[in-house]
Design goal:
The protein is built from two helices and 14 strands; from the N terminus they run αββββββββββββββα. By secondary structure, it is mainly beta. The N and C termini lie far apart (71 Å).
Length: 267
């Protein structure tokens, strides 16, 4: 083996080692945990005790993975620190690079003085499609009304997907004029199709002073702790935006195309 051959061999080994090291680093890069963007809880006197409500927004900074099987644990205690309520809520899958607005409530026999919400770790599943394939569900015609014992939110949910969405969860987050989260509520709609909107009705009774509510921020997403419903819809494809044929007659002459020179026009 000549000296030059040895040098070429050493360079090749170094390049291979560098590539392998870079690949291992990319593969070993840990996924970032879900973060709590905002969260609020409230206690309101109800007919059967005290209504404990919580609402928040989880954020997923990983652009290629769904956060699945996230469990929220809610604990309410009285003024003496005694535990009154402990309940768990299975949250829906958090889309890649997106957020999950959520809410929940339970009833306590005695009045809680403090409420805490903690979250378990997510299980990660790679998305079946690129992030842009996961279109949001449009919410239209939202109307709100203050009532004596609640805040009414109504509207319609549509779908951009070819396949029907079997179950969607609709969450309304209530905010004051400064954008501060005050509370929220959730409901479900079934069989949402691209050409047929579904109406939702929410009567949220978790905010004691409804006069502070300035607006309702409404979101719709797939229901379930895994990404399978969202993956199935994305794999089925998006309905084209423009599907109607033109109703006007075509132009007799295309006036938008520049004239083609058929001869040498130089002076």
């Amino acid at each position: 083996m000549t000296h030059s051959t040895r040098i070429v061999g050493v360079i090749a080994l170094l390049l291979l080692a560098g590539c392998s090291s870079g690949t291992e680093k990319r593969q070993a890069a840990p996924l970032r945990p879900l973060t709590v963007r905002e969260q609020v809880s409230s206690v309101v006197k109800g007919d059967d005790g005290y209504v404990v409500n919580w609402a928040g927004v989880l954020s997923n900074a990983n652009p290629w993975h769904f956060g699945e099987h996230v469990v929220a644990t809610v604990v309410a205690k009285d003024a003496l620190g005694r535990e009154i309520v402990r309940t768990e809520q299975q949250l829906d899958a958090v889309p890649p690079g997106g957020t999950l607005p959520f809410s929940g409530q339970t009833t306590a026999a005695r009045k809680p003085s403090q409420v805490s919400v903690t979250y378990g770790s997510a299980q990660w599943r790679p998305a079946a499609r690129i992030v842009s394939a996961f279109e949001g569900f449009p919410v239209t015609g939202v109307l709100t009304a203050r009532q004596d014992h609640g805040y009414l939110v109504t509207g319609y949910v549509g779908s951009p997907y070819r396949l029907p969405a079997g179950n969607l969860v609709v969450t309304a987050l209530l905010r004051d004029r400064n954008g501060r989260l005050l509370g929220g509520g959730s409901t479900f709609v079934d069989d949402v199709r691209a050409n047929a909107k579904r109406r939702f009705i929410l009567n949220i009774q978790s905010v004691q002073d409804t006069g502070k509510i300035d607006r309702a921020e409404v979101h719709a997403g797939t229901w379930g702790s895994t990404s399978r419903p969202y993956d199935a819809l994305a794999l089925g494809g998006i309905v084209p935006v423009n599907t109607a044929k033109p109703t006007t007659a075509p132009f007799a002459k295309d006036r938008g195309r520049p004239a083609t020179l058929t001869a040498d026009a130089r002076p």
